[in-house]
Amino acid sequence: MRGRQEKIGESFSRILFKQMKTSCLVTSTFLTFALTACNQKSNQVNNDSSGQRTVASAPAKPASSFGKVTFSELSVPSKPVVTPDLIAHGKTIYSQNCAACHGVNGDGKADAAAFLAPKPRNFAQANYRLRSTPSGSLPTDEDLFRAVSLGLPGTPMPPWRVHLSDEDRWAVVEYIKTFSPRFADANENHPAIVPLGNPPTRDASAIAEGKTLYSKFACVTCHGETGRGDGASAALGLVDDSGSKIKPRNFTQPGTFKSGHSAKEITRTILTGFNGTPMLGFDGTVKKEEAWKIAYYLETLAKAPPSVVARTSQNFLEREELGEPDVRIKLTERAWKYDPAEIRVKKGQI
Fold this sequence. Notes:
Oligomer: single chain
């Protein structure tokens, strides 16, 4: 009996140690992600612990130099020649900055993923949301570069153009593509870009027609009559390709638009859709001009940003003159130092 108790105690100790080890690993992952995101290497030559010669890439531009830009409007620099060295560099950058969420195998199953909503992209499945290509197609290299550069508002995915240089981001793009065999398939690797057509005149008539089209093409089923993402399908429950529950876009909250809030981005999304979600691309079903008019209408649903209220600055160093107190309370705790040493309150407050 005693021997059995010792074995049970030993097994419990092993389980407890394993749980503590897992907890430490998750904490370490978050710390590593935070440190690597904020402490990038400068353009210099170093020797690592193994004695190998490594070249760190040039630092990214300071955050203050970036303006607010939407997905399609981001200027994409020329892509460098794809070489084994570039992909190897991309693997290094990925390991330092991306693996904590997306996983070493690019399957979105890293330790940190359990704490994130929405879940990190699964690069092995290659169902990319932000694209300029038809529904179900792979994104272009430029699409991937833009997504890495701008991040996804409303998600834990940060804008890496603040932290990584152009070369770093191109290298990461090429490395990410190695996770899915679809990018090596010649039949899939040259997707056509969906043309957006010429935007019609934006006036009251176009917006009114956009409202009619919004109902005609059953957008209300998911997004609701008022565009708050509370349609009948939303109530039933929608899921993405990871099995996670998702909500339709709330058009009254422009800050949550993944590619930025503009008529052009809304039009592109209507035509191309979001792969891996119930949001299909309507190119071929909705005319280009109709997509623009729906976008014009959806822009009108956005809430105006809160106005700044001018308030008199409060100086907390200037205290109200209360006069002599009615009661004095002596503070006897020696473990604390109080500032101010004397605290005055009005009668009836305590």
